[in-house]
Amino acid sequence: MMTRTTRENARSRFVRGRLVGAAAIAFAVSVVMENAVLAASGAPAFGAPIEEVLAYYAANRDSVAIVSGLVALYLPLLLVFVTGLHGLVERRGGAGADWSRIALAAGATLSAIFVLVNVLQIGLALSAGGLAGPTPAFELVWQVHAAAFALALSTLGTTFIGAALAAHASGLTPAWQRLPGLVGGSLLLAAGFGNVAIADGSTLIFVGLAGFAACLVWLIVTGVRLVRSDVD
Fold first, then answer.
1. Residue 106 above 60 pLDDT?
2. DSSP secondary-structure letter at 83?
3. CA distances in angstroms from 202 to 38, 62, 146, 195, listed in the order given
């Protein structure tokens, strides 16, 4: 009976680890797909003339719909990852639990901000087709969309820094693996301090994008490790 119980517990631990790892990989893939759709459709930079923004949203409603669907998919995946990671950390003795709580809180906040970013983008796409030219209301929605995205960078960085430190402290990942998470998260935090400039079209956004790319690398590598490892 004891052997059977031990075997079932081991199987349950394996399933939990695989679920968290799969959520991490699926989140990363979904984000890459989202950005690929935006790039392929010629999404305007935040500093683009408002006439160009209106023309984009009037002509690319389908692309916005695809992006919105991906966001609706990956936000729950993000929450599954940070919540599951916190559970794994606590079941392994609690080392790094404070960091995983920070990642969980930041991830939840990030999800709320991304909902706002996406809702505003949907509003831009829905309204653009009926406008003969840019209106003050349309421009305001675009500016709030840009500001919300720029402000999300620091929250995104906090999520990954907390997750990387928690995963390392609990022994879920080796020491070297936390580097891309910490570097990427730090770059996102640095970019987040310049959120007003980024919302106005500053090239500082590329600092954040470089950091995000590093964080995605950490996320995929960590996800693969969790999927392949028998972790509790």
1. yes
2. H
3. 19, 28, 11, 9
